[in-house]
Amino acid sequence: MAEVAEDFSSRKDAETTQGKAGEASPKSQERRERILDAAEELFATSGFDGVTLRQIAKLAGVDVALTSYYFGPKLQLFDAVLKRRGEILNRARLDALRSAEAESAPNPPSIERVIEAFLRPLEIAQESEDRGWRNYCALIAYVNNSPVWGKKMIGKHFDKLVREFTAAMQRCFPEAPARDIFWCYHNLSGALSLTFADTGRIDILSENACQSHDFKSAYDRMIPFMAAGFREICGGH
Amino acid sequence: MAEVAEDFSSRKDAETTQGKAGEASPKSQERRERILDAAEELFATSGFDGVTLRQIAKLAGVDVALTSYYFGPKLQLFDAVLKRRGEILNRARLDALRSAEAESAPNPPSIERVIEAFLRPLEIAQESEDRGWRNYCALIAYVNNSPVWGKKMIGKHFDKLVREFTAAMQRCFPEAPARDIFWCYHNLSGALSLTFADTGRIDILSENACQSHDFKSAYDRMIPFMAAGFREICGGH
DNA sequence: TTGACACTTCAACAAGCGTTGAATCTAATC
DNA sequence: GATTAGATTCAACGCTTGTTGAAGTGTCAA
Q: What ranges are recorded for DNA binding (chains A, B) (predicted)?
Protein backbone atom coordinates (compact mmCIF):
# COMPACT_ATOMS: atom_id res chain seq x y z
CA MET A 1 0.00 0.00 0.00
CA ALA A 2 1.33 3.36 -0.93
CA GLU A 3 1.18 6.18 1.51
CA VAL A 4 -0.18 9.47 0.33
CA ALA A 5 2.45 12.04 1.08
CA GLU A 6 1.57 15.59 1.88
CA ASP A 7 4.31 17.21 -0.11
CA PHE A 8 6.63 16.08 -2.85
CA SER A 9 10.30 16.61 -3.54
CA SER A 10 12.24 15.92 -6.70
CA ARG A 11 15.89 15.63 -7.56
CA LYS A 12 15.96 18.97 -9.18
CA ASP A 13 13.55 21.64 -8.14
CA ALA A 14 11.57 21.10 -11.29
CA GLU A 15 9.35 24.16 -11.50
CA THR A 16 11.91 26.81 -10.65
CA THR A 17 14.90 25.41 -12.52
CA GLN A 18 12.77 25.03 -15.59
CA GLY A 19 11.94 28.69 -15.63
CA LYS A 20 15.36 30.01 -14.71
CA ALA A 21 17.16 28.77 -17.79
CA GLY A 22 14.62 30.37 -20.09
CA GLU A 23 12.65 27.47 -21.54
CA ALA A 24 13.42 23.78 -21.56
CA SER A 25 14.85 22.31 -24.72
CA PRO A 26 12.09 21.07 -27.01
CA LYS A 27 13.62 17.60 -26.95
CA SER A 28 13.46 17.27 -23.19
CA GLN A 29 10.02 18.85 -23.10
CA GLU A 30 8.81 16.23 -25.52
CA ARG A 31 10.27 13.50 -23.32
CA ARG A 32 8.47 14.88 -20.31
CA GLU A 33 5.22 14.65 -22.20
CA ARG A 34 5.97 11.14 -23.36
CA ILE A 35 6.58 10.06 -19.79
CA LEU A 36 3.31 11.64 -18.73
CA ASP A 37 1.48 9.95 -21.59
CA ALA A 38 2.89 6.56 -20.72
CA ALA A 39 2.21 6.99 -17.02
CA GLU A 40 -1.33 8.13 -17.77
CA GLU A 41 -2.05 5.07 -19.85
CA LEU A 42 -0.55 2.54 -17.47
CA PHE A 43 -1.86 4.08 -14.26
CA ALA A 44 -5.32 4.19 -15.82
CA THR A 45 -5.42 0.49 -16.51
CA SER A 46 -3.47 -0.92 -13.61
CA GLY A 47 -3.59 1.65 -10.84
CA PHE A 48 -0.80 3.29 -8.90
CA ASP A 49 0.62 0.12 -7.40
CA GLY A 50 0.06 -2.01 -10.47
CA VAL A 51 2.58 -0.12 -12.54
CA THR A 52 6.34 0.16 -12.19
CA LEU A 53 8.47 3.09 -13.19
CA ARG A 54 10.37 0.74 -15.45
CA GLN A 55 7.20 -0.10 -17.36
CA ILE A 56 6.41 3.57 -17.73
CA ALA A 57 9.92 4.38 -18.90
CA LYS A 58 9.89 1.52 -21.37
CA LEU A 59 6.58 2.61 -22.89
CA ALA A 60 7.83 6.17 -23.07
CA GLY A 61 11.11 5.02 -24.62
CA VAL A 62 13.32 6.67 -22.03
CA ASP A 63 15.66 5.60 -19.25
CA VAL A 64 14.10 4.78 -15.89
CA ALA A 65 16.13 7.35 -14.10
CA LEU A 66 14.58 10.09 -16.19
CA THR A 67 11.22 9.61 -14.54
CA SER A 68 12.74 10.47 -11.20
CA TYR A 69 14.85 13.22 -12.67
CA TYR A 70 11.87 15.04 -14.08
CA PHE A 71 9.14 14.26 -11.63
CA GLY A 72 10.75 13.08 -8.43
CA PRO A 73 9.18 10.18 -6.55
CA LYS A 74 6.56 7.99 -8.16
CA LEU A 75 3.75 9.69 -6.28
CA GLN A 76 4.69 13.04 -7.69
CA LEU A 77 4.60 11.66 -11.20
CA PHE A 78 1.11 10.39 -10.46
CA ASP A 79 0.13 13.83 -9.27
CA ALA A 80 1.62 15.49 -12.35
CA VAL A 81 -0.46 13.24 -14.58
CA LEU A 82 -3.64 14.19 -12.76
CA LYS A 83 -2.79 17.84 -12.89
CA ARG A 84 -1.87 18.14 -16.55
CA ARG A 85 -5.26 17.65 -18.15
CA GLY A 86 -7.31 18.42 -15.07
CA GLU A 87 -6.77 22.12 -15.37
CA ILE A 88 -7.74 22.20 -19.04
CA LEU A 89 -10.82 20.10 -18.45
CA ASN A 90 -12.01 22.02 -15.45
CA ARG A 91 -11.80 25.26 -17.35
CA ALA A 92 -13.83 23.87 -20.23
CA ARG A 93 -16.52 22.56 -17.90
CA LEU A 94 -16.68 25.77 -15.95
CA ASP A 95 -16.96 27.80 -19.15
CA ALA A 96 -19.80 25.57 -20.28
CA LEU A 97 -21.58 26.10 -16.98
CA ARG A 98 -21.13 29.87 -17.16
CA SER A 99 -22.54 29.94 -20.69
CA ALA A 100 -25.58 27.95 -19.68
CA GLU A 101 -26.20 30.28 -16.79
CA ALA A 102 -25.70 33.41 -18.87
CA GLU A 103 -28.14 32.10 -21.46
CA SER A 104 -30.99 31.66 -19.02
CA ALA A 105 -30.24 34.62 -16.75
CA PRO A 106 -31.72 35.83 -14.56
CA ASN A 107 -33.35 32.42 -14.14
CA PRO A 108 -31.26 29.37 -13.39
CA PRO A 109 -30.69 27.04 -16.34
CA SER A 110 -32.52 23.74 -16.54
CA ILE A 111 -30.92 20.82 -14.76
CA GLU A 112 -30.33 19.29 -18.19
CA ARG A 113 -28.14 22.21 -19.15
CA VAL A 114 -26.14 21.96 -15.96
CA ILE A 115 -25.56 18.24 -16.41
CA GLU A 116 -24.72 18.85 -20.03
CA ALA A 117 -22.09 21.38 -19.04
CA PHE A 118 -20.65 18.77 -16.73
CA LEU A 119 -20.53 16.01 -19.35
CA ARG A 120 -20.14 17.33 -22.88
CA PRO A 121 -16.62 18.74 -22.55
CA LEU A 122 -15.60 15.20 -21.62
CA GLU A 123 -17.24 13.76 -24.68
CA ILE A 124 -15.37 16.16 -26.94
CA ALA A 125 -12.10 15.25 -25.27
CA GLN A 126 -12.79 11.54 -25.34
CA GLU A 127 -13.88 11.42 -28.95
CA SER A 128 -10.78 13.24 -30.19
CA GLU A 129 -8.20 11.31 -32.17
CA ASP A 130 -5.76 11.60 -29.26
CA ARG A 131 -6.07 8.54 -27.04
CA GLY A 132 -4.59 10.53 -24.17
CA TRP A 133 -7.87 11.98 -23.05
CA ARG A 134 -9.49 8.59 -22.83
CA ASN A 135 -6.63 7.33 -20.73
CA TYR A 136 -6.90 10.36 -18.53
CA CYS A 137 -10.62 9.84 -17.97
CA ALA A 138 -10.07 6.18 -17.16
CA LEU A 139 -7.51 7.29 -14.62
CA ILE A 140 -10.00 9.67 -13.06
CA ALA A 141 -12.46 6.80 -12.79
CA TYR A 142 -9.84 4.78 -10.95
CA VAL A 143 -8.97 7.58 -8.58
CA ASN A 144 -12.55 8.68 -7.98
CA ASN A 145 -13.60 5.22 -6.84
CA SER A 146 -10.58 4.54 -4.71
CA PRO A 147 -10.90 4.96 -0.95
CA VAL A 148 -7.19 5.74 -0.80
CA TRP A 149 -6.87 8.24 -3.63
CA GLY A 150 -10.42 9.50 -3.76
CA LYS A 151 -10.20 11.89 -0.87
CA LYS A 152 -6.71 13.30 -1.34
CA MET A 153 -6.22 13.40 -5.06
CA ILE A 154 -9.69 13.94 -6.47
CA GLY A 155 -10.36 16.52 -3.82
CA LYS A 156 -7.14 18.33 -4.60
CA HIS A 157 -7.80 18.57 -8.32
CA PHE A 158 -11.58 18.67 -8.60
CA ASP A 159 -13.23 19.96 -5.44
CA LYS A 160 -13.36 23.53 -6.60
CA LEU A 161 -15.10 22.61 -9.81
CA VAL A 162 -17.53 20.19 -8.22
CA ARG A 163 -18.60 22.80 -5.70
CA GLU A 164 -19.45 25.15 -8.57
CA PHE A 165 -21.64 22.49 -10.10
CA THR A 166 -23.40 21.37 -6.95
CA ALA A 167 -24.12 25.02 -6.20
CA ALA A 168 -25.59 25.41 -9.67
CA MET A 169 -27.70 22.29 -9.14
CA GLN A 170 -28.93 23.70 -5.88
CA ARG A 171 -30.02 26.85 -7.72
CA CYS A 172 -32.04 24.64 -10.08
CA PHE A 173 -33.91 23.29 -7.06
CA PRO A 174 -33.79 26.04 -4.45
CA GLU A 175 -36.28 24.30 -2.18
CA ALA A 176 -34.47 20.96 -2.12
CA PRO A 177 -32.41 20.06 0.94
CA ALA A 178 -28.68 20.09 0.28
CA ARG A 179 -28.61 16.43 1.28
CA ASP A 180 -30.71 15.50 -1.73
CA ILE A 181 -28.64 17.55 -4.11
CA PHE A 182 -25.46 15.84 -3.01
CA TRP A 183 -26.86 12.32 -3.22
CA CYS A 184 -28.11 13.08 -6.71
CA TYR A 185 -24.73 14.43 -7.70
CA HIS A 186 -23.24 11.29 -6.22
CA ASN A 187 -25.35 9.17 -8.58
CA LEU A 188 -24.23 11.20 -11.53
CA SER A 189 -20.62 11.03 -10.48
CA GLY A 190 -20.72 7.26 -10.06
CA ALA A 191 -22.34 6.60 -13.42
CA LEU A 192 -19.85 8.91 -15.05
CA SER A 193 -16.93 7.15 -13.41
CA LEU A 194 -18.03 3.78 -14.68
CA THR A 195 -18.36 5.23 -18.17
CA PHE A 196 -14.85 6.64 -17.95
CA ALA A 197 -13.47 3.35 -16.79
CA ASP A 198 -14.30 1.88 -20.18
CA THR A 199 -14.14 -1.64 -18.83
CA GLY A 200 -15.77 -3.23 -21.84
CA ARG A 201 -18.28 -4.88 -19.59
CA ILE A 202 -21.39 -3.36 -21.14
CA ASP A 203 -20.24 -4.74 -24.48
CA ILE A 204 -20.27 -8.24 -23.08
CA LEU A 205 -23.50 -7.91 -21.10
CA SER A 206 -25.37 -6.39 -24.02
CA GLU A 207 -23.80 -8.78 -26.53
CA ASN A 208 -22.39 -5.79 -28.39
CA ALA A 209 -25.63 -3.83 -28.53
CA CYS A 210 -23.63 -1.17 -26.64
CA GLN A 211 -19.95 -0.29 -26.75
CA SER A 212 -18.26 1.01 -23.66
CA HIS A 213 -16.13 3.47 -25.63
CA ASP A 214 -19.14 4.95 -27.37
CA PHE A 215 -19.19 7.95 -25.09
CA LYS A 216 -21.65 9.93 -27.15
CA SER A 217 -24.33 7.26 -26.77
CA ALA A 218 -23.58 7.09 -23.08
CA TYR A 219 -23.96 10.81 -22.52
CA ASP A 220 -26.96 11.18 -24.83
CA ARG A 221 -28.81 8.87 -22.47
CA MET A 222 -27.13 9.92 -19.28
CA ILE A 223 -28.24 13.54 -19.49
CA PRO A 224 -32.02 12.95 -19.64
CA PHE A 225 -31.67 9.98 -17.32
CA MET A 226 -29.97 11.98 -14.61
CA ALA A 227 -32.17 15.02 -15.14
CA ALA A 228 -35.24 12.87 -14.53
CA GLY A 229 -33.63 11.46 -11.41
CA PHE A 230 -32.84 14.92 -10.07
CA ARG A 231 -36.41 16.07 -10.67
CA GLU A 232 -37.80 13.02 -8.93
CA ILE A 233 -35.69 13.54 -5.81
CA CYS A 234 -35.26 17.30 -5.70
CA GLY A 235 -38.32 18.46 -7.63
CA GLY A 236 -40.42 18.52 -4.47
CA HIS A 237 -44.16 17.85 -4.49
CA MET B 1 0.74 -5.07 -13.43
CA ALA B 2 -0.62 -8.43 -12.49
CA GLU B 3 -1.64 -10.86 -15.15
CA VAL B 4 -5.01 -12.48 -14.84
CA ALA B 5 -4.40 -16.19 -14.95
CA GLU B 6 -6.92 -18.54 -16.42
CA ASP B 7 -6.61 -21.26 -13.84
CA PHE B 8 -5.18 -21.48 -10.39
CA SER B 9 -3.10 -24.05 -8.56
CA SER B 10 -2.32 -24.29 -4.88
CA ARG B 11 0.21 -26.21 -2.84
CA LYS B 12 -2.31 -28.68 -1.69
CA ASP B 13 -5.35 -29.44 -3.75
CA ALA B 14 -7.46 -27.40 -1.38
CA GLU B 15 -11.01 -28.44 -2.19
CA THR B 16 -10.49 -32.18 -2.44
CA THR B 17 -8.05 -32.70 0.40
CA GLN B 18 -10.32 -30.73 2.67
CA GLY B 19 -13.18 -33.12 2.07
CA LYS B 20 -11.21 -36.35 2.19
CA ALA B 21 -10.17 -36.14 5.81
CA GLY B 22 -13.73 -35.58 6.94
CA GLU B 23 -13.89 -31.91 7.88
CA ALA B 24 -11.13 -29.43 8.53
CA SER B 25 -10.25 -28.75 12.14
CA PRO B 26 -12.23 -25.81 13.49
CA LYS B 27 -9.00 -24.05 14.33
CA SER B 28 -7.67 -24.15 10.80
CA GLN B 29 -11.06 -23.31 9.38
CA GLU B 30 -11.13 -20.21 11.54
CA ARG B 31 -7.70 -19.24 10.28
CA ARG B 32 -8.84 -19.59 6.71
CA GLU B 33 -11.67 -17.19 7.44
CA ARG B 34 -9.36 -14.75 9.17
CA ILE B 35 -7.09 -14.71 6.14
CA LEU B 36 -10.07 -14.07 3.88
CA ASP B 37 -11.30 -11.30 6.17
CA ALA B 38 -7.93 -9.60 6.19
CA ALA B 39 -7.48 -9.96 2.45
CA GLU B 40 -10.95 -8.61 1.85
CA GLU B 41 -10.30 -5.53 3.91
CA LEU B 42 -6.90 -4.74 2.46
CA PHE B 43 -7.74 -5.53 -1.15
CA ALA B 44 -10.80 -3.32 -0.83
CA THR B 45 -8.85 -0.27 0.21
CA SER B 46 -5.62 -0.72 -1.72
CA GLY B 47 -6.38 -2.98 -4.65
CA PHE B 48 -4.73 -6.19 -5.73
CA ASP B 49 -1.29 -4.74 -6.31
CA GLY B 50 -1.40 -2.37 -3.39
CA VAL B 51 -1.40 -5.15 -0.83
CA THR B 52 1.27 -7.70 0.05
CA LEU B 53 0.68 -11.18 1.36
CA ARG B 54 2.77 -10.23 4.35
CA GLN B 55 0.36 -7.41 5.20
CA ILE B 56 -2.57 -9.76 4.90
CA ALA B 57 -0.92 -12.40 7.05
CA LYS B 58 0.00 -9.83 9.67
CA LEU B 59 -3.54 -8.49 9.89
CA ALA B 60 -4.88 -12.03 10.09
CA GLY B 61 -2.33 -12.94 12.73
CA VAL B 62 -0.88 -15.89 10.85
CA ASP B 63 2.36 -16.81 9.14
CA VAL B 64 2.83 -15.58 5.55
CA ALA B 65 3.31 -19.08 4.26
CA LEU B 66 -0.16 -20.04 5.40
CA THR B 67 -1.76 -17.82 2.80
CA SER B 68 -0.08 -19.80 0.05
CA TYR B 69 -0.71 -23.07 1.83
CA TYR B 70 -4.44 -22.53 1.96
CA PHE B 71 -5.14 -20.52 -1.14
CA GLY B 72 -2.20 -20.98 -3.47
CA PRO B 73 -0.95 -17.96 -5.42
CA LYS B 74 -2.03 -14.47 -4.53
CA LEU B 75 -4.48 -14.28 -7.41
CA GLN B 76 -6.31 -17.34 -6.17
CA LEU B 77 -6.70 -15.77 -2.75
CA PHE B 78 -8.19 -12.74 -4.44
CA ASP B 79 -10.61 -14.98 -6.27
CA ALA B 80 -11.56 -16.82 -3.09
CA VAL B 81 -12.41 -13.52 -1.43
CA LEU B 82 -14.70 -12.55 -4.28
CA LYS B 83 -16.36 -15.93 -4.31
CA ARG B 84 -17.07 -16.28 -0.59
CA ARG B 85 -19.74 -13.64 -0.17
CA GLY B 86 -20.66 -13.38 -3.83
CA GLU B 87 -22.63 -16.58 -3.78
CA ILE B 88 -24.58 -15.61 -0.67
CA LEU B 89 -25.34 -12.15 -1.99
CA ASN B 90 -26.38 -13.28 -5.42
CA ARG B 91 -28.82 -15.75 -3.95
CA ALA B 92 -30.39 -13.06 -1.75
CA ARG B 93 -30.77 -10.69 -4.68
CA LEU B 94 -32.20 -13.35 -6.94
CA ASP B 95 -34.68 -14.39 -4.26
CA ALA B 96 -35.77 -10.78 -3.89
CA LEU B 97 -36.29 -10.50 -7.63
CA ARG B 98 -38.31 -13.71 -7.74
CA SER B 99 -40.53 -12.49 -4.89
CA ALA B 100 -41.17 -9.19 -6.63
CA GLU B 101 -42.10 -10.99 -9.81
CA ALA B 102 -44.33 -13.51 -8.05
CA GLU B 103 -46.14 -10.70 -6.29
CA SER B 104 -47.13 -8.91 -9.45
CA ALA B 105 -47.65 -11.95 -11.68
CA PRO B 106 -48.74 -12.25 -14.37
CA ASN B 107 -47.71 -8.65 -14.90
CA PRO B 108 -44.07 -7.60 -14.55
CA PRO B 109 -43.21 -5.77 -11.34
CA SER B 110 -42.61 -2.04 -11.38
CA ILE B 111 -39.08 -0.93 -12.19
CA GLU B 112 -38.85 0.32 -8.61
CA ARG B 113 -39.37 -3.20 -7.32
CA VAL B 114 -36.71 -4.60 -9.62
CA ILE B 115 -34.19 -1.98 -8.57
CA GLU B 116 -35.14 -2.54 -4.96
CA ALA B 117 -34.46 -6.26 -5.31
CA PHE B 118 -31.07 -5.33 -6.71
CA LEU B 119 -30.17 -2.95 -3.90
CA ARG B 120 -31.85 -3.80 -0.63
CA PRO B 121 -30.05 -7.07 0.06
CA LEU B 122 -26.87 -5.03 -0.04
CA GLU B 123 -28.19 -2.55 2.44
CA ILE B 124 -29.03 -5.30 4.90
CA ALA B 125 -25.55 -6.77 4.52
CA GLN B 126 -23.82 -3.43 4.78
CA GLU B 127 -25.73 -2.25 7.82
CA SER B 128 -24.99 -5.41 9.79
CA GLU B 129 -22.60 -5.22 12.74
CA ASP B 130 -20.06 -7.28 10.79
CA ARG B 131 -17.68 -4.95 8.93
CA GLY B 132 -16.88 -7.75 6.52
CA TRP B 133 -19.77 -7.03 4.22
CA ARG B 134 -18.80 -3.41 3.87
CA ASN B 135 -15.28 -4.40 2.99
CA TYR B 136 -16.59 -6.86 0.48
CA CYS B 137 -18.79 -4.28 -1.20
CA ALA B 138 -15.91 -1.83 -1.36
CA LEU B 139 -13.89 -4.55 -3.03
CA ILE B 140 -16.63 -5.09 -5.59
CA ALA B 141 -16.56 -1.38 -6.33
CA TYR B 142 -12.85 -1.58 -6.94
CA VAL B 143 -13.15 -4.60 -9.20
CA ASN B 144 -16.20 -3.35 -11.07
CA ASN B 145 -14.49 -0.13 -12.08
CA SER B 146 -11.19 -1.69 -13.00
CA PRO B 147 -10.45 -2.26 -16.68
CA VAL B 148 -8.19 -5.14 -15.70
CA TRP B 149 -10.41 -6.98 -13.22
CA GLY B 150 -13.78 -5.79 -14.41
CA LYS B 151 -14.11 -8.13 -17.33
CA LYS B 152 -12.62 -11.31 -15.90
CA MET B 153 -13.55 -11.24 -12.26
CA ILE B 154 -16.85 -9.42 -12.16
CA GLY B 155 -18.03 -11.35 -15.15
CA LYS B 156 -17.06 -14.64 -13.56
CA HIS B 157 -18.90 -13.98 -10.32
CA PHE B 158 -21.78 -11.72 -11.31
CA ASP B 159 -22.70 -12.11 -14.96
CA LYS B 160 -25.36 -14.71 -14.35
CA LEU B 161 -27.12 -12.53 -11.79
CA VAL B 162 -26.87 -9.35 -13.81
CA ARG B 163 -28.41 -11.03 -16.83
CA GLU B 164 -31.39 -12.04 -14.69
CA PHE B 165 -31.86 -8.44 -13.67
CA THR B 166 -31.42 -6.85 -17.07
CA ALA B 167 -33.90 -9.37 -18.44
CA ALA B 168 -36.37 -8.37 -15.72
CA MET B 169 -35.80 -4.70 -16.55
CA GLN B 170 -36.47 -5.44 -20.18
CA ARG B 171 -39.79 -7.04 -19.17
CA CYS B 172 -40.67 -3.80 -17.37
CA PHE B 173 -40.20 -1.95 -20.67
CA PRO B 174 -40.94 -4.48 -23.39
CA GLU B 175 -40.92 -1.86 -26.14
CA ALA B 176 -37.59 -0.36 -25.22
CA PRO B 177 -34.53 -1.28 -27.29
CA ALA B 178 -32.08 -3.48 -25.45
CA ARG B 179 -29.47 -0.77 -25.93
CA ASP B 180 -31.41 1.60 -23.71
CA ILE B 181 -31.95 -1.00 -21.02
CA PHE B 182 -28.24 -1.72 -20.80
CA TRP B 183 -27.18 1.92 -20.68
CA CYS B 184 -29.69 2.50 -17.91
CA TYR B 185 -28.40 -0.51 -16.01
CA HIS B 186 -24.93 0.89 -16.55
CA ASN B 187 -25.94 4.11 -14.79
CA LEU B 188 -27.34 2.17 -11.89
CA SER B 189 -24.28 0.00 -11.65
CA GLY B 190 -21.93 2.97 -11.65
CA ALA B 191 -23.81 4.85 -8.96
CA LEU B 192 -23.95 1.72 -6.88
CA SER B 193 -20.23 1.15 -7.25
CA LEU B 194 -19.40 4.60 -6.03
CA THR B 195 -21.66 4.08 -3.05
CA PHE B 196 -19.91 0.81 -2.26
CA ALA B 197 -16.53 2.41 -2.50
CA ASP B 198 -17.34 4.46 0.57
CA THR B 199 -14.66 6.99 -0.23
CA GLY B 200 -15.87 9.57 2.25
CA ARG B 201 -15.93 12.13 -0.50
CA ILE B 202 -19.61 13.01 -0.25
CA ASP B 203 -19.04 13.78 3.42
CA ILE B 204 -16.48 16.38 2.51
CA LEU B 205 -18.35 17.87 -0.44
CA SER B 206 -21.60 18.15 1.49
CA GLU B 207 -19.84 19.35 4.63
CA ASN B 208 -21.25 16.37 6.49
CA ALA B 209 -24.83 16.81 5.33
CA CYS B 210 -24.37 13.29 3.90
CA GLN B 211 -22.29 10.36 5.13
CA SER B 212 -20.85 7.96 2.63
CA HIS B 213 -21.42 4.97 4.90
CA ASP B 214 -25.09 5.84 5.35
CA PHE B 215 -26.19 3.24 2.85
CA LYS B 216 -29.85 3.43 3.73
CA SER B 217 -30.03 7.11 2.82
CA ALA B 218 -28.17 6.36 -0.36
CA TYR B 219 -30.53 3.60 -1.45
CA ASP B 220 -33.68 5.41 -0.32
CA ARG B 221 -32.85 8.07 -2.87
CA MET B 222 -31.22 5.86 -5.43
CA ILE B 223 -34.28 3.71 -6.02
CA PRO B 224 -36.71 6.50 -7.06
CA PHE B 225 -33.89 8.34 -8.78
CA MET B 226 -32.97 5.41 -10.98
CA ALA B 227 -36.59 4.43 -11.57
CA ALA B 228 -37.30 7.92 -12.90
CA GLY B 229 -34.25 7.66 -15.12
CA PHE B 230 -35.34 4.32 -16.52
CA ARG B 231 -38.81 5.65 -17.27
CA GLU B 232 -37.39 8.69 -19.01
CA ILE B 233 -35.16 6.64 -21.31
CA CYS B 234 -37.10 3.42 -21.70
CA GLY B 235 -40.64 4.58 -21.02
CA GLY B 236 -41.32 5.36 -24.67
CA HIS B 237 -43.95 7.80 -25.85
C1' DT C 1 38.60 27.04 -26.28
C1' DT C 2 36.90 26.80 -21.96
C1' DG C 3 33.49 26.67 -18.71
C1' DA C 4 29.04 25.83 -17.00
C1' DC C 5 24.88 23.56 -16.73
C1' DA C 6 20.96 20.89 -18.15
C1' DC C 7 20.33 16.48 -19.74
C1' DT C 8 20.98 11.49 -20.10
C1' DT C 9 22.81 7.02 -19.07
C1' DC C 10 24.58 3.34 -16.30
C1' DA C 11 25.14 0.59 -12.49
C1' DA C 12 24.16 -0.24 -8.15
C1' DC C 13 21.75 0.09 -3.55
C1' DA C 14 18.79 -1.72 0.22
C1' DA C 15 14.32 -3.25 0.78
C1' DG C 16 10.62 -5.86 -0.20
C1' DC C 17 8.15 -9.09 -3.13
C1' DG C 18 5.65 -13.99 -3.93
C1' DT C 19 6.68 -18.43 -3.30
C1' DT C 20 8.57 -22.90 -1.58
C1' DG C 21 11.38 -26.87 0.58
C1' DA C 22 12.34 -28.69 4.76
C1' DA C 23 11.67 -29.11 9.50
C1' DT C 24 8.59 -29.10 13.37
C1' DC C 25 4.29 -29.43 15.68
C1' DT C 26 -0.39 -31.46 16.66
C1' DA C 27 -3.79 -34.75 16.95
C1' DA C 28 -6.32 -38.56 15.49
C1' DT C 29 -5.79 -43.74 13.97
C1' DC C 30 -4.06 -48.17 14.24
C1' DG D 1 3.07 -46.05 21.89
C1' DA D 2 3.89 -45.84 17.00
C1' DT D 3 2.29 -44.15 12.69
C1' DT D 4 0.42 -41.03 9.68
C1' DA D 5 -1.05 -36.83 7.69
C1' DG D 6 -2.53 -32.31 7.94
C1' DA D 7 -1.20 -27.80 9.99
C1' DT D 8 2.27 -24.56 10.99
C1' DT D 9 6.69 -22.32 11.18
C1' DC D 10 11.14 -20.86 9.56
C1' DA D 11 14.46 -19.50 6.51
C1' DA D 12 15.66 -18.83 2.31
C1' DC D 13 15.30 -18.47 -3.00
C1' DG D 14 15.50 -15.47 -7.08
C1' DC D 15 13.62 -11.45 -8.60
C1' DT D 16 11.78 -6.78 -8.86
C1' DT D 17 11.00 -2.52 -6.73
C1' DG D 18 11.94 2.87 -6.25
C1' DT D 19 15.65 5.65 -5.93
C1' DT D 20 20.32 7.73 -6.41
C1' DG D 21 25.33 8.83 -6.96
C1' DA D 22 28.62 9.16 -10.37
C1' DA D 23 29.95 9.46 -14.88
C1' DG D 24 29.05 10.83 -19.50
C1' DT D 25 27.00 13.73 -23.33
C1' DG D 26 25.44 17.75 -25.56
C1' DT D 27 24.96 22.74 -26.05
C1' DC D 28 25.04 27.49 -25.48
C1' DA D 29 27.63 31.67 -23.34
C1' DA D 30 31.81 33.90 -22.43
A: 52-71
